[in-house]
Structures are given as C-alpha cells and as structure tokens.
Amino acid sequence: MQDFLTLTEAATYLGVSRQTLWRRIRDGVLPVHVSEINRRERLVKRTDVDRINTPQTIEPTTKERK
After folding, report:
1. Residue 1: in which H helix or E strand, if any?
2. What's the pLDDT score for residue 5?
3. d(Cα 17, Cα 13) in Å, to the nearest integer?
4. CATH of 4-53, one of 1.10.1660.10, 1.20.1640.10, 1.10.260.40, 1.10.150.20
5. How far, in whole angstroms, is CA 23 from its chain's centroid?
6. Domain segments of the chain: what residues?
7. With 0-12 CB in 10 A as exposed, 13-18 as middle and 19+ as buried, what is 15?
8. How far apart are CA 21 and CA 30, in angstroms?
C-alpha cells in the first residue's frame, strides 16, 4: 500500500488543496485509481505524485521588439 497515497495524503504532500488535486486528475495530469477494499476511496501512485512535483524547465521565449 506504500505505493499509493490517498487524495488527502497526496494533497498534503504536495502542499495543495484536494480541489487542486482533483483539477489535476480532471485535466489528465494525474491518474487516479479506485481502492479494492473501499470503492469510495480514490488513490494515486506515489511515483505519479513525485512526477508532477518535479520542477519543469521552462524555455525562455524571445519577443521581437518593434
């Protein structure tokens, strides 16, 4: 079970609200799974949470000035 986190645990780990986590799930950024023991409980993989928590490199854009 250590491979999975509840949505509350994942939100606390990321420092965001559960609502923000649900937005990530809705947008397809974070896959969600259903617990086999409690069908009402939603789980996310710890590796997926770590993946979205990794900083992404942003390429600078150059704008031409007129």
Report:
1. none
2. 95
3. 10
4. 1.10.1660.10
5. 9
6. 4-53
7. exposed
8. 8
Whole-angstrom distance, CA of residue 42 vs CA of residue 65: 49
14-63 residue pLDDT tens = 999 999 999 999 999 999 999 888 899 999 999 999 999 888 788 887 77
Tens of pLDDT, residue by residue over 42-53, are: 999 999 999 998
Distance of alpha carbon 16 from alpha carbon 53, whole angstroms? 11
Q: Residue 55's pLDDT is what?
A: 80
Predicted TM-score (pTM) of the model is 0.74
Percent helix, strand, coil in the chain, to 5, is: 40, 15, 50
Alpha helices in 5-59 (DSSP H): 7-14, 18-26, 46-53
